[in-house]
Write a structure and sequence with these properties.
Layout lengths: L5 E7 L2 E6 L2 E8 L2 E5 L5 E7 L4 E7 L1 H25 L4 H23 L5 H5 L2 H22 L2
Antiparallel strand pairs: 1-2, 2-3, 3-4, 4-5, 5-6
Length: 149
């Protein structure tokens, strides 16, 4: 048998710092559940029924935690690459935005120069509708051309 040393310091709020021969660990929890990071780097979850002595402990070793992190990072990279391949370029959106603003300015200038119209007839004027149609046509044309492989 070997020599053991352990000191637990209760910091309140269910948080404890545990000092042992192998290092410093910490845990947090209440009656019925506690999660612990051991001095060796393992993560332990303890589920218990208070005042019965019945409990269930699951522990992940540091290697398992590192493997899970590596697997999660690889899955994240693959997912990000798949999204990057599928996502359209932002350039068509910027071009469409600039072109739309230009079309709106032209339509406003046109309406301002022809003050003869009543407000309801301005909305149904053929020129602003033609500018909107032109902007949408160019937008979808650019998207189509950029997404071709």
């Amino acid at each position: 048998m070997g020599f053991r040393y352990r000191k637990s310091i209760n910091l309140g709020g269910g948080f404890k710092v545990n000092v042992s021969k192998t290092g410093i660990g910490y845990s947090w929890g209440t009656k019925g559940f506690r999660i612990t990071k051991t001095a060796k780097g393992n993560i332990r979850k303890t589920y218990s029924i208070p005042k019965t002595g019945i409990s269930f402990v699951s522990e992940k070793t540091k290697m398992n935690v590192l493997k899970n992190n590596i697997i999660q990072e690889e899955a994240y990279k693959k997912q990000k690459e798949a999204i990057d391949e599928k996502s359209p370029s932002i350039i068509p959106t910027i071009i469409f935005g600039i072109f739309t603003i230009i079309c709106i300015i032209i339509a406003i200038v046109y309406i301002a120069l022809t003050k003869k119209m009543n407000p309801p007839s301005i909305l149904f004027s053929s020129f602003p509708l033609a500018m909107l149609f032109l902007a949408l046509t160019i937008h979808y044309s650019i998207r189509f051309l950029c997404n071709r492989k």
